């Protein structure tokens, strides 16, 4: 197979961004840029993203929206290609965006296909060659050259490689952690990985705080908190929470998942508590105060009926247990109910795994990568971008923003060296 100057491995969001910007910089330089993907039809993850609508970026993107590697490095990357750059670039690709009240940007068509087609056509226009169905099985590095071996038995050499093979989420899309193994073999430190933005599985238990099987399909505006052994808040997030047959899904549980899983992975013996509270109440005292006020106003009403003014009926009934009229509730039971409303301990036994996770926490150690070019500080000529780096964003378009920004830097960074080398 013909050799190339730059080979990009992985044609997901990050790889396509890298290919587009590298391709533009390569015009007229006689540089051959090739992008490979193991999938016959690249871009599967883009197509399923945002419920099939692809949440491309967010109105406000800051380092607070990301976890993992040092925020100073994340900030430098995000500043180089921010959300305004994404919007302008999408416009150039013919993808019209609309802003929703949540701050999320989607294509006006409401179809992720518009974004993928815009990217694929944009890459094609730059003259970058795309090879689909080309799974890479090995990379060797020596004498300033990379040898890339494909599953088909073919191989090629290249002086620069961009690894854009994703993390471990949605493995059926072709992202199964292979790139992380290769990066490790080439000498990079890999921060321990866990699923992120994954639904949470609760212990099967018929009481309130258990699996909530009876609540399946209901949503609540809730605070979710992760507390450490001393009761200190590790992470908290307020957003919609969806009850399912296995546990919890929706924005708040998905955002919490990486914190639960990373904390457990880092401190296997430690006891972390997960707590769910109605958004109306910051603390049990506030819930207790509300119950007292309601008892004064509506003391003759049944507790379940009062609770159903702030909760779906099925949940109100479960919380009220065998309570009768509100005015007859004693102090101990009122406190117990207030705690359940504001700080209900839930028993998270696991997550739903990489097959249901939207991204990966952990990955290639950020300090080992130059934040201006995404080039490895360990293997000259090797660049990284996207989900395989030790950075994961919360729900809201932040993971794509990371993929576009790192793809942009890796594509331009690799080309800068190649063009300088040709002069
Ligand atoms: C269901 C779902 C919904 C999501 N929704 C959103 C959203 O709306 N907004 C948002 O910001 N983020 C969303 N995300 C996250 C976002 O999709 C990812 O952060 C992003 O796609 C990561 O891009 P990437 O290019 O780094 O990796 P990937 O998209 O995983 O691409 C990696 C590519 O590398 C290829 N590859 C892997 N190994 C090899 C190999 N050995 N040889 C050749 N090719 C290989 C794979 O086939 C794949 O095409 C969602 C994710 C999921 C799963």
Question: In the CATH hierarchy, what is the superfamily of the largest domain?
Answer: FAD/NAD(P)-binding domain
Biggest beta sheet summary: 7 strands, mixed
Number of strands: 21
Cα gyration radius (Å) = 25 Å
Mean pLDDT: 94
The rounded distance between the terminal residues' Cα atoms is 26 Å
Instruction: Name the hetero compounds present.
Output: flavin-adenine dinucleotide
Q: What name does CATH use for the topology of the largest domain? A: FAD/NAD(P)-binding domain
- What count of structural domains? 2
Instruction: Report strand %.
Output: 15-25%
CATH architecture of the largest domain: 3-Layer(bba) Sandwich
What would you call the shape? elongated
Overview in brief:
The protein starts with a strand and ends with a helix. The mean pLDDT is 94.
Q: Can you offer a commentary on this structure?
A:
The protein is an alpha+beta fold. It has 2 domains: 4-195 and 358-422, FAD/NAD(P)-binding domain, CATH 3.50.50; 200-351, no CATH class. The chain is built from 12 helices and 21 strands. The strands form 5 sheets. Strands 1, 2, 7, 8, 9, 10 and 20 form a 7-stranded mixed β-sheet that branches. Strands 17-16-13-14-15-12-18 form a 7-stranded antiparallel β-sheet. Strands 3-6-5 form a 3-stranded antiparallel β-sheet. Strand 8 and strand 9 (145-150) form a beta hairpin. The mean pLDDT is 94. Flavin-adenine dinucleotide binds next to helix 1, helix 2, helix 6 and helix 12.
